[in-house]
Amino acid sequence: MNALIVEDFDKYREKGYAVLDTRSVDAFKQGFIPGSINIPVTSRLAEYATIAFEKDGTLILVTEPEQEAAVATELKKAGIENIAGFLNGGFEEWQKAGKPIDMIIDIEADELMMDIPFDENLVVIDVRRPLDFAQGHLKNAINIPLEEMSNVLNLAQIEESDNLYLHCYTGVRSVIAASIIKKQGIHNLRNVAGGWEAIQKESKAEIVKEPGMLN
To answer: What's the pLDDT tens digit per position in 150-170?
Structure first.
C-alpha cells in the first residue's frame, strides 16, 4: 500500500477520494481532516464501512502507526478494496503541515437537559437502532439509525437552522454519524458525551417509549 506524503494525500482528497480515519473517537473529535469519516478499529469496522462508503469508490486512509495493513484487511471483508494509500505519519503530519482541520464538540448530558427548554431550534438525533429507540428515548428526539445515516432522504429532514445533538448508547456510533453528517456539509452539531447511558441518568430527562414499535 502506498505511503502518501501530505501533498499527495491532499491532491487525492481534492479529486474526491473518500477519507477514512480509523483512530479512536476521542482522538478524532479533537481534530481531523475535513470531510473524513471516522470508523475506529473495532470488530465492527467492516460492518460500519459498508454504511459509510461505496464499494466501488476509492479510499485514502488515516490510521494509527502500523495499522494500515490490518485496516485494509478488514475493509476487504466488506468488499472495499480500492485503497489508494495512507497518510504517512498520520494525522500529526497533516497538522505539522498547517493544513485545515475540523473538530466535533462534545456536550455533557446535563448541559443538553439545560438547553432543551430554551432552544427552539434544538434537535436531538438518536442514532441507535429502532428497537432500542422504542424502548426509551428523549421526548421529541428523531431516530436516524447509524445504518441509515448515509440515506440522503434522512438527512434532507435536517433544517439549516437546526442545532443538532447526536447520541447513541455510549458515544461511538454518534461520532461516526457526526462525521457522515459533516461530510454532507452540515456542521451545526454536538455529540452528547456518554450517549444514552449518561442521558437516562439525568433527572430532568423526559423519556418516552414507543409501545407500538415493540409489538
So the answer is: 888 888 889 989 999 999 999
CATH code at 39?
Answer: 3.40.250.10
- Angle at which helices 45-52 and 173-183 pack, to 10 degrees? 20
DSSP state of 190: E
Query: Are residue 119 and residue 190 in the same domain, yes or no?
Result: yes
pLDDT per residue as tens digits for the range 65-100: 999 999 999 999 889 999 999 999 999 999 999 999
Q: Strands, DSSP E only, in the chain?
A: 3-4, 18-21, 37-38, 59-62, 83-87, 106-107, 122-126, 137-138, 142-143, 163-167, 189-192, 207-208
Range of the domain at 121: 106-214
Biggest distance spanned by C-alpha atoms of the chain: 55
- Count how many domains the chain has: 2
CA distance 90 to 69: 14
203 lies in some domain: yes
Q: Per residue in 176-202, pLDDT tens?
A: 999 999 999 999 999 999 999 999 999
Q: Residue 101: inside a domain, yes or no?
A: no
pTM exceeds cut of 0.85: yes
Residue type, 108: E
User: CB of 121 within 8 A of CB of 163?
Assistant: yes
Give the model's pLDDT for residue 210: 83
Each residue of 7-29: b (16+ CB within 10 Å) or e? ebbbebbeeebbbbbbbbbeebb
